[in-house]
Amino acid sequence: MMDYAPYFAERRDAHLRELKEWLSIPSISAQSVHKEDVRRAAEWLADALKRAGLENVEIHPTAGHPIVYADHLHAPGKPTVLIYGHYDVQPVDPLHLWQTPPFEPDIRDNKLYARGATDDKGQLFLHIKAIEAILSTEQALPVNVKFCVEGEEEIASGNLHPFIEAHKDKLAADAVLISDTELLGPDKPAICTGLRGLCSLEVSVRTANTDLHSGTYGGGVPNALHALVSLLDSLHDKRGRVAVDGFYDDVSELTDEMRAEFAKKGIDEEKLKRTLELDALYGEEGYTFAERVGARPTLEINGMYGGFQGEGTKTVIPCEAHAKITCRLVDHQDPQDILDKVERHIRKHTPPGAKVSVVQGEKGRPYTIDPSHPLLRQAGSAYERVYGARPVFTRDGGSIPIVEAFARVLSAPVVLMGFGLPTENLHAPNEHFHLDNFDKGLLTIVEFLKRF
Amino acid sequence: MMDYAPYFAERRDAHLRELKEWLSIPSISAQSVHKEDVRRAAEWLADALKRAGLENVEIHPTAGHPIVYADHLHAPGKPTVLIYGHYDVQPVDPLHLWQTPPFEPDIRDNKLYARGATDDKGQLFLHIKAIEAILSTEQALPVNVKFCVEGEEEIASGNLHPFIEAHKDKLAADAVLISDTELLGPDKPAICTGLRGLCSLEVSVRTANTDLHSGTYGGGVPNALHALVSLLDSLHDKRGRVAVDGFYDDVSELTDEMRAEFAKKGIDEEKLKRTLELDALYGEEGYTFAERVGARPTLEINGMYGGFQGEGTKTVIPCEAHAKITCRLVDHQDPQDILDKVERHIRKHTPPGAKVSVVQGEKGRPYTIDPSHPLLRQAGSAYERVYGARPVFTRDGGSIPIVEAFARVLSAPVVLMGFGLPTENLHAPNEHFHLDNFDKGLLTIVEFLKRF
């Protein structure tokens, strides 16, 4: 098999310049002020796919952000691979914690810093360049290729779900290939065989019809923040478990085999504490960190606010307070069922004098694939050849809501072949992508496509 | 005694125009961006005092915002009254809840809407115009008058305390007169004989050294918001009491006499609930609303924030979270002692994996005056003459931290003669001043000065 290393080495600077250009477009799907930026990122992607030699490049408008499609179907009798990724990114606040601005990509210490560097523009870019490399070198691809790239992954893929249903035939494939997950660590490749589901809700508490002076009213009226704090504190028990009735009903206990597989990840909890500068890890009693993150459901408060947040003191009794909550789901947990249970708990625990409103949001199911699937073995060999190590099969704590839908609607296995690192601050300030995995990722994808 | 009603009626429009000019200066003492505005408000006040006929008008710079002094000492053998007030105002957010902008004064329904309309520019303005009226009509005042007006009342009067100590002789007076409190209701005058003390602190929780992705880490690491929520929820028990060890040590139980006096306020709790659109009032078990607010200490969360607050969902585990807390104090509670006790509680209840920092802020002691003091009787007669009703002696839940200092350092009784209404949204959006009490306040002050 041909060695593509010199090809990529020669073009490395040009490739990185190109990626930086894409990363400098603030395609934050969650914020309507960036709608135009998201569109620009889609157009940039369509151009890049054309330059790579892909055909039938289309930007499909949706009710939200567009879906970009492209294909190259000139390998008759060969399997078809559908490559999925997303060109939208997470919001960037708190902005003051970024060392360089999130949309001014900067390379330091062989790491590319920018929002979207690893999640997911950087990883998706590897596929475009791997295909461009094979096409321009060999004038043909070893498989048929389709790209389906969305701009709403960070906001739950609301329009991609019906798009897949409506374009089943167009998207038909023998496998779906996604790079939006992680290695275990530098030179420790991993193939993800399970993803947690995700559901979200927003809780608002209202007390009086206006903020009140804490001198005139303090001690005699409900305080929206006190009510919300009491409500939220009731969601977990003292053993770190979610205290919502029936929350664990559809979660099976871990078998000894599964515990053994998690142990193989070899996560050093002491080292993790040092890295994160934590005095203690925290979670459900009776599970290791790997088990908690890989196989247990969660309920997290992602944001909360109410009352006075400015400089100084304001002696006010706030009349409204808000919280954003997401749950990660596993096994047979159904997002709608969990949202209903959490909402029921919230209504039941609302303190006197408070009125609560709940808005349900995203709903993505958990996904798993059998680690013995032949395609995963091929992917494993590709990693081994480039990284010099066989990948571990892991279950990842993250959620890619669309994975379960692809698998179900297209009846195709989904290969989750990630090149990120767990330390790359995705969804947080100073997101980055280690360029060692940029280089190795390009080669691994070429290897995999050729072994397909 | 001469009737000043025609005098004030004739000048009403001009007086309101003048007051609106002052109210349009955003003198928010808590926000450093408004430092220059606070200075402009002080200069406006100095000019107004000069126009009123006061002498020795001085703007004293301090380490913070200036103190304005003026006097008129041409009544030999007569008592001296020191008039105190403040020209600074509270912050204005949440701005979107204001019906008209806080610094564009607007009269609707005989109410003057603006930040500071009732607290305290509007009320202080009454004294300036009352004195101007007597001076311009009778060319003499019945008493010697001094003004001492600060720009830091809303941020705990940090520089006025040492100023009073350093200028004891200059400020010497037989009584201190303050209009920064409330009537019981329209045509129900009240004289405040007790004020709660105030202390403040800010709590910050830190967990990991960066925000983390809730997929990769969720369920396995501490969440700063969970930790803060648990910490804050521990500050009250299920009976609405502050759960901090020793918090009530220096609070005496209410006597039957005191309960009877509170009952006289005649607060209709059902009506209060309707006015505030509350399903239920809330507070310490075993006390009425009036008792809770007038004679019981509190701990209130005034603001809280952490994590993602924007539009949409962000699956982040926040690494920091913040809360602002104030306590209202009564009886012999010492602000420093209470802050230390609350801080000790917070440190003791910090959940695993969280690091807490506490910054102590304001410290003001509670104040009381004997309701049978002769000056309070005179003030009562002045109200009765204008309002047609004898005032009730009340203990107010609010705090004017400097009152206790004036009384102690100058050895003078402090007469708290307020013209605000409990419904005027002070410290909240849509603060206003009912102009009926603007008109009656002017006459009441003239009456009181003449009876002194």
Automatic annotation (TrEMBL), chains A, B:
Q: Keyword rRNA-binding: yes or no? A: no
Show the Pfam families listed in the entry: M20_dimer (PF07687), Peptidase_M20 (PF01546)
Keywords per UniProt: Hydrolase, Metal-binding, Protease
InterPro entries attached to this UniProt entry: Cyt/Met_Dipeptidase, Peptidase_M20, Peptidase_M20_dimer
Tell me the ranges covered by the Peptidase M20 dimerisation domain, including all copies. 193-353
What's the name of the protein?
A: Peptidase M20
- Organism of provenance: Paenibacillus cisolokensis
